Amino acid sequence: MSLNYKELLNEEQYKACTTTEGPLLILAGAGSGKTRAITHRVAYMIGEQGIPPWSILAITFTNKAAGEMKDRVRELVGDQAETMWISTFHSSCVRILRRNIQELGYNKDFTIYDTYDQKALVRQCMVELDINTKQFTEKDFRSAISSAKDSLIDENRYFELNHTNFRKGKIAQVYQLYQQRLRKNNALDFDDIIMLTVRLFREHPEVLEFYQNKFKYIMVDEYQDTNRAQYELIYLLAKEHRNLCVVGDDDQSIYQFRGADLRNILEFESDYPDATVIKLEENYRSTGTILKAANEVIKGNFSRKDKTMRTRKPEGEKIRIYRAFSEPDEGSFVAQEVARLVRDGRNYNEIAVLYRTNAQSRLMEENFI
Question: Which residue from 50, 62, 271, 309 puts its CA 20 to 30 A from 337's CA?
Answer without folding.
Answer: 309
